[in-house]
Amino acid sequence: MAEINITSENYEAEVKNSDIPVIVDFWAEWCGPCKMMGPVFAELSEEYTGKLKFAKVDTESQPDVAGQHQIRGIPCLIVFNKGEEVDRIVGFAPKEAMKEKIEKVLGSI
């Protein structure tokens, strides 16, 4: 499943009203760890098709969306279920560590 770019216009439809859990990557172009997280996030989006929606928010072009969630450091990945935050991962994590965290969260939902 392709990653969805979130804006203030589609946030409610894609995140709040999603019928499956959503993981949102808050990132910025200038952020080195964000660039490292990008390929990991893309690979995981393919592995979890139908189980978890993968979305990205560019904090530079969408500061209002980032502000809603008090993003203080990036990359910051937030998992939402039925529009509510259920977990937050701040900083880069390798693929296997991300898979463990995702499996733990999905198992608790």
What does this molecule look like?
This protein has 109 residues and is α/β, with parallel strands linked by helices. It has a single domain (4-108), classed as Glutaredoxin. The chain is built from four helices and five strands, in the order βαβαβαββα. Strands 1-3-2-4-5 form a five-stranded mixed β-sheet. The protein is globular.
Q: What is this entry, summarized?
A:
39% of the residues lie in helices and 25% in strands.
Topology overview:
Blueprint: E1 4-5, H1 11-16, E2 22-27, H2 32-47, E3 53-58, H3 63-68, E4 76-81, E5 84-90, H4 95-108
Parallel strand pairs: 1-3, 2-3
Antiparallel strand pairs: 2-4, 4-5
CATH class: Alpha Beta
Class based on secondary structure composition and strand pairing: alpha/beta
CATH architecture: 3-Layer(aba) Sandwich
Spans of at least 5 consecutive residues with low confidence? none
Instruction: Report the radius of gyration as a whole number of Å.
Output: 12 Å
Q: Any descriptors?
A:
Glutaredoxin; 109 residues; 39% helix; single chain; alpha/beta; 5-stranded mixed beta sheet; 4 helices
